[in-house]
Amino acid sequence: MFPGFGELVARLDKSVAARSFEVITAGVKADLEDLLGRSALALPDRFRQPRADCYARRLLYQDPERRYTAVVMAWGPGQGTPVHDHGGLWCVEGVVEGEMAVTQYDVVPEEDGFRVRATGTPLTAGVGTAGRLIPPTDYHVLANAQPDATSVTLHIYGGNLDGCRIFVPRDDGRYQQTVRALSYHE
Ligand SMILES: [Fe+2]
């Protein structure tokens, strides 16, 4: 494997053994902030290549006991997500390279569609920054904050995230919910 990979897996194995999502995600967040903050994870080039059509999503590691999955995403200029959740899984997302814009949202079901509102101001997350998301308050938007360069992020999910809900604005100001299937790029 590559420099930092063994340390990442060893640390995650230890952190996910905790008993609550609260403690697990605090541990994983500290793991990512430490490793990424020291630039100790030397991802191979294939994980760092953006795609033209949308952000690239590549599987880095799947825990054999299925307790967590590590996924790397590469974001070209202008690329980002819609408002989304994380399929009911806990999740910690860290910046490996570049800079990401992160906005948290409240999503409230109403009779006709969903009301979606940003909570607080968007923040710009740099290398070594990690954020954690615990359902049910886990709605956000991620976007590359660099106008002319690729950014790379590392996502640890508490299982195998094969789908999530996305929320797309309608003309009437409400949002429509759609289930999006997620797969991996090569
Ligand atoms: Fe996310």
Count of separate DSSP helical elements: 2
Percent range for helical residues? 10-25%
**In angstroms, what separates the terminal alpha carbons?**
17 Å
Unreliable runs, pLDDT <50, ≥5 residues?
none
Q: Looking at the structure, what is the overall shape?
A: globular
Small-molecule binders: fe (ii) ion
Q: What is the CA-atom radius of gyration, in angstroms?
A: 16 Å
Number of strands: 12
Oligomer: single chain
Order of strands side by side in the largest beta sheet?
Answer: 1-2-10-4-8
Average pLDDT reading: 96
Proportion of beta-strand residues: 35-45%
Q: From the helix content, strand content and strand pairing, which structural class follows?
A: alpha+beta
How is the main sheet built?
5 strands, antiparallel
Can you walk me through this structure?
The chain has 186 residues and is an alpha+beta fold. It is 15% helix and 41% strand. It contains two helices and twelve strands; from the N terminus they run H-H-E-E-E-E-E-E-E-E-E-E-E-E. It has helices at 5-15, 21-37, and strands at residues 56-62, 69-75, 83-84, 91-97, 99-110, 113-118, 123-126, 130-133, 139-144, 151-157, 163-169, 175-181. The strands form three sheets. Strands 1-2-10-4-8 form a five-stranded antiparallel beta sheet, with helices on one face. Strands 5, 6, 7 and 9 form a four-stranded antiparallel beta sheet that branches. Strands 3-11-12 form a three-stranded antiparallel beta sheet, with no helix packed on it. Strand 1 and strand 2 form a beta hairpin. Helix 1 packs antiparallel against helix 2 (21-37). The two termini are 17 Å apart. The model has no long low-confidence stretch (mean pLDDT 96). It binds fe (ii) ion (FE2).
